[in-house]
């Protein structure tokens, strides 16, 4: 997993105090209360509605960084098929970091929840002593 390794390496150079939950990057602003709605069409013609909401909540991730919680829900024909909490933070230079997610996928259009495997965030970097 190259992406995870790169993030772990970069995070080793930055400390938790180098991040903020105030995300004001002009290309990806995430002010609490903001909301975006998308419509996606799968190759088989299935239409999904994706609602992304920036919450007021924060979460401390394994690296010690406090992240902004962004919730996105996916529905098909009005039934929940995925519910995800994403974690983002911004560094002092204004770069927005994606720090992981906690996802629940629903089979049978919202009736059978199942945790998505392996999507619980990035491992904490270890510094050499």
Short account of what is shown:
With 129 residues, the protein is mainly β. Helices cover 9% and strands 49% of the residues. The protein has one helix spanning 2-13; strands at residues 19-20, 35-41, 47-60, 66-76, 79-91, 96-107, 112-115.
Count of strand segments: 7
The biggest beta sheet reads:
7 strands, antiparallel
Low-confidence stretches: 123-129
The whole-number mean of residue pLDDT values reads 83
Instruction: Return the structural class.
Output: mainly beta
- Overall helicity: under 10%
Strand coverage percent: over 45%
Distance between the termini: 25 Å
For the record, the count of structural domains works out to: 1
Helix and strand sequence: HEEEEEEE
Radius of gyration: 16 Å
Which labels suit this protein?
9% helix, mainly beta, elongated, 129 residues, seven-stranded antiparallel sheet
List the helices and strands and how they pair.
Blueprint: H1 2-13, E1 19-20, E2 35-41, E3 47-60, E4 66-76, E5 79-91, E6 96-107, E7 112-115
């Amino acid at each position: 997993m190259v992406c995870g390794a790169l993030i772990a390496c970069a995070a080793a150079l930055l400390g938790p105090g180098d991040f903020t939950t105030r995300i004001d990057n002009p290309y990806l602003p995430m002010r609490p209360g903001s909301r975006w709605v998308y419509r996606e069409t799968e190759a088989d013609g299935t239409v999904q509605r994706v609602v992304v909401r920036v919450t007021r909540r924060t979460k401390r991730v394994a690296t010690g960084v406090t992240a902004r919680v962004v919730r996105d829900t996916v529905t098909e024909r009005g039934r929940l098929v995925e519910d995800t909490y994403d974690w983002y933070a911004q560094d002092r230079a204004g770069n927005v970091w994606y720090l992981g997610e906690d996802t629940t996928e629903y089979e049978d259009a919202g009736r059978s929840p199942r945790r998505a495997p392996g999507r619980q965030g990035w491992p904490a970097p270890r510094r050499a002593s």
